Write the structure tokens for this entry.
Amino acid sequence: MRDVLVSKDLYFAAAQPRSPECWVTGMFANPTPIKETKMWLVLGGADDYTLPGPCVELGKKYKANGGDIKIDVREGWHHLFTGNYEVEFAGRTQFFHDCPQILSDDNGDFTEEFVQGFLVKYGEFESREHWIQMSREDPRGAFKKFFTTA
């Protein structure tokens, strides 16, 4: 993907994602890591907002595909572990743990598993083509239908 956007010789020397959302943000199902970039993925083992498990699995895929990644799950750490305050429950927070996982295929589209197993299965869209058509003709309506399904 970087080759399309910039150039092969441009990359970050290192990346350090902390508590990223790896469940419903459309991460690549088959990630192609930039081998020159060292990555240190830091997750809170007690994080109940962005669960560490999906990111650990994604990190394993990065590693299997040649990525230079260290996966570090810190037991007892919550979501905002870099904050200097006591943990407290935020009552108005949205959680998406019970939603189906959203992944992107190699082209950046939703995986067929997500489209058929969720968007079509629950009746808001008839097919991938219907989803694409709605997204182009009425993006807001498609977005609302998407979350009506969720």
